[in-house]
Amino acid sequence: MDRTEILKILASAGLRPQHQFGQNFMIDQNILAAIADAGDIGPDDVILEVGPGVGNLTRQLASRAHNGAVLAVDIDYKLMPAAQRYHAALTNVTWINTDVLAGKHEVEQAVLAKLRELRAHHPAGQLKLVSNLPYNAASPLIAELLVEMWREQSRASAPRSHTPDPIPQTLFFSRLAFTVQHEVALRMAAHSGTRDYGPLGILIQAMSNVEIIRRIPAGAFWPPPKIQSALVVVKPVAEKIARIHDALALQSLLQGIFSHRRQTLGNALKHHLGERWTDLKTQITNAGFDLQKRGEELPIEAFLKLAEITTPNPPPN
User: Fold this and answer.
1) Residues 13-25: pLDDT tens digits?
2) In the predicted model, is pLDDT for residue 105 greater than 50?
3) Quick one: 259 and 234 in the same domain?
4) Distance from C-alpha of 80 to C-alpha of 53, rounded to nearest angstrom
5) CA-to-CA distance for 225 and 217, rounded, in angstroms?
6) In this predicted model, what pLDDT tens digit does every residue of 144-176 receive, in sequence order?
7) For position 20, which CATH number holds?
8) What's the CA gap between 61 and 130, in Å, rounded?
9) Which of 47, 65, 177, 310 is most buried per CB count within 10 Å?
10) Residue 20 falls within a domain, yes or no?
11) End-to-end alpha carbon distance in the chain
12) What is the pLDDT of residues 225-249, one digit of tens each?
């Protein structure tokens, strides 16, 4: 889909690209194909596409998952109906006009319900996210999809005395393939001791394997953004997810520690735990933690252990 075709769809709705929705439309056909390729889409798969815009990627997804389904979710209440009309021939695409995030830490329940429904109708395929994500939604969406998978797996595997089957749940995404700002991609894949290491990358890597596939130049979009982008693939791992005591507490711990990034681990934990610090300090040091280190020096396994110590009982699911 070239710029002329995009303008035609926008004009039908009386629109221009909306900055508040992070709209930069992909016009490079080779990169659109690369995004779809990264999704490794099978004919029976169920694909979640967030921010379909004018539907230029949607067409490729619908063609590849021709026996499955595509759920296209867009917040733009003017553009999405125009895109839906333009792509009316794509009978395996379901369109939902909503914000995929109900809040900063919650995926919209209507989206989850529709995914469950589509999975029930297409049980032979896998569930995947393949999207040219809006910049402002990318980080919280990926984090919350992983947390939602933890919730799903926790419910299905209780009591947690064995490793669950890799994909037993309705909402276990086997792959997340998406575009994000290049600097966000670096944070997702960062290792301990580096400048980009922080809550987002630790959470993602604690539950999955992540790979930056390629950089995407600004010229691949219209209008071109002022930043570079990247194509990222995240592959959730059931065994990694199963070992997490409480994903919500882990998120909170990471935010608490890295909001005091320049302070020692001890001081950061003191701020995060408040009155509980006095009772937990000895237990944390006895577990081998050096409170004079900084959080950015700790490996992912250390944060999982800290989350277990500071949150002994996970919430009911």
Assistant:
1) 676 655 555 567 8
2) yes
3) no
4) 7
5) 9
6) 999 999 999 887 766 544 555 544 457 999 999
7) 3.40.50.150
8) 8
9) 47
10) yes
11) 44
12) 888 999 999 999 999 999 999 999 9
Rounded to an integer, what distance in angstroms lies between the CA atom of residue 260 and that of residue 277?
A: 16
Of the residues 242, 262, 289, the one at which a domain ends: 242
* Contact predicate 61/256, CB 8 Å: no
Same domain, 257 and 234: no
Burial class (CB in 10 A: 0-12, 13-18, 19+), 272: buried
Output the pTM of the full model.
0.90
Q: Are 304 and 243 in contact (CB under 8 A)?
A: yes
The closest alpha carbon to 22, from 131, 146, 176, belongs to 131
- Which one of 242, 271, 289 terminates a domain? 242
Omega of the bond prior to 159 within 30 degrees of 0, cis?
yes
Predicted pLDDT at 9: 76
**Selection from 229, 228, 265, 246 nearest residue 308 by Cα:** 246
Helices (H), 77-137: 79-86, 109-121
Q: Which residue has the tokens 């995914």?
A: 115
| DSSP 8-state assignment for residue 218 | G
The two three-digit tokens of residue 146, written as one number: 């992983």
**Number of domains, the chain:** 2
In sequence order, what are the residues at sequence separation of 6 or more whose Cβ sits closer than 8 angstroms to the Cβ of residue 120?
A: 170
Is 53 a domain residue?
yes
Q: Token match 């592959």: residue? A: 235
Residue 245 corresponds to which tokens in the numbers above? 């005591």
DSSP single-letter state for residue 163: P
| Residues of the domain holding 254 | 247-310
Query: CA-CA distance, 317 to 315, in Å (whole number)?
Result: 6
- Say how far apart CA 75 and CA 314 lie, in whole Å: 33
Residue 221 is predicted with a pLDDT of: 86
